[in-house]
Amino acid sequence: MIVYLSEFLGTAVVDSTGKKIGTVAEVAAQPGTHPPRVSRILLRNGKGAAGRAVAWREIESIERDRLRLRVPEAALAAAPADESLLLLRKDLLDQQIIDVNGRKVVRVNDLLLEKRTGPEGLEMLLSAVDIGVRGAVRRLLHGAVPQAWLRQIEKSVRENTIPWEFVDLIESDPRRQVKLHISHQVLTKLHPADLADIVEELAPKERQALFQALDDVTVAEALSEVNPKLRRSILESLGIHRAADIVEEMQPDAAADLLAELPEETTTELLQGMNREEAAEIGELLEHAENSAGGLMTTKYIALPHTADAAAARNLLRSIPDLPEQFNTLFLVDEGGVFMGSVTLARLIVAPEGIQLSALKSEPLLHAAETASEQDVIELFDKYNLLTLPVVDEQRHLVGAITADDVITVLNKKR
Q: Which of these, 50, 138, 332, 344, has the minimum number of CB atoms within 10 Å of its CB?
């Protein structure tokens, strides 16, 4: 049986003697259970604040218009100040939550509680969240019209609920996040672009608390997708040491773009807090003009001697635990690091084992100088339908690669 929180609040409470001792003021659940199980009912006597608590074992029955206890009023304890309890009215009703399935931030209009008989007797579980107009109508008209009329009105309004399993709580206090067992692990499974959209909808305090709770890799991926106007404030709110760890996890080109937006003093502090090799790689990218091929490129690519064969190349790829993002092309170089050609991953997969990579390279031999303009790069991608473009220095040494998503980002900025 489904009970709506908006209708359950205010329900009369009678003790074991039949005496009315108050009304339901708040419902407390244990957040560590899945779904959360109601563990206490807080009572209000008159118009004052909730003062006493009913433990779940003290409830005899929950009827349509009253809650019956199995103990007398004198046996009830005072309302606890336990911050580890999830207070459904205070913490959820009218608050923002994250709809993981819909990948957005939504406001709670009502809560659906499932009353059932479990192995240990009567229990009530938080089963779903109402984020639609139906929940708002229910709360607006509850008590103003007969319940039968209200149910008829509700039927004319589309239901919009989220099962609790797809809900992620927003709590700006890091200490209370721990007490409520809010880990945000489900958010780590979202695409970084979806997580970035969610982050952009949150207030600064909530945004900071969310990033403090997520791991460095997840934050790095999401930060790369966040609106550039927000990235600086987000990074600064995390503190230099955490920010340096996060930048270290980003793709070099994305990290360079981010650091280029920061004051020079902050950039220097972050680079000093990073792994020396990573810092040097990003530092080199920062030296290039932002609107040049060098400013667009990443230094994460895979290059092999042009004399290697297909079998050796495939064995190498199997041994690499983390291939570069957007990996679709293998670059060929001579013994001095001079760019000799490109081999698409598709051609490598179907190539005979003994064939040399130089025989598989694409024609014409396309590349961009690191000083080439963004427009030159865009024209090459457009003319040849490229997925990846190698970048070379004045001596034609391979120094980086530009991928199609880099070009899309540039085009979006030009809109």
A: 344
